[in-house]
Amino acid sequence: MVKLVNVLDSLPNYEYVTVSQDMPIKDLKKIVREHPGVRSIYVTDKEGRVLGELSIGALIKNISAKRRCSSRISTRELLSCLTCKSASDIVDRRLVYASPDEDIERVLDRALKYNIKEMPVVDESGKLLKNISVLDLLAVLDDKD
Q1: Angle at CA 121, nearest 5°, toward 13 and 37?
Q2: What whole-number distance in Å separates Cα of residue 89 and Cα of residue 136?
Q3: N or C: which terminus of the chain has fewer CB atoms within 10 Å of its end residue's CB?
Q4: Distance (Å, whole) CA 145 – CA 84
């Protein structure tokens, strides 16, 4: 078994953005425009611990809710979007992540189960160490064979 910690430094760090849980939705729009290629936006608390991931889809849905006030959006969805004020209101707290001391096989199994292409690696306190690609993990295992 190959532990993630043994190869972590050799893996590329895929670009990601971290935002505070208190960041207003209107400021999130600017962040996304400044980083058009980023697929991962992580929401953190005041201590820098990762609380969850912010999906670009959820952000777009929230931003466009007022423009879509027609039959294309349900009343419940519209009310939810209109009452959201900050990143903490739309963050997905069911974050799938890896720990450095895990076996790469376990990390890959979890990534495949949840159809994840990139995954954050967090330390024991919940702070983000790196954003890794599942393809890079597969390459590490192929190189070990």
Answers
A1: 40
A2: 32
A3: C
A4: 49
Q: pLDDT digit string (tens) for 93-141?
A: 999 999 999 999 999 999 999 999 999 999 999 999 999 999 999 999 9
Q: Please give the structure tokens belonging to residue 73.
A: 């959006």
pTM of the model: 0.83
The strand ranges marked E within the chain are: 17-20, 41-44, 50-54, 118-122, 128-133
16/18 Cα distance (integer angstroms): 7
Question: Phi and psi dihedrals of 60, rounded to 5?
Answer: -65, -40
Tokens of 128: 């983000």
DSSP string, 72-113: TS-HHHHHHHHH--BHHHH-B-----B-TTSBHHHHHHHHHH
All domains of the chain in start order, with CATH: 4-144 (3.10.580.10)
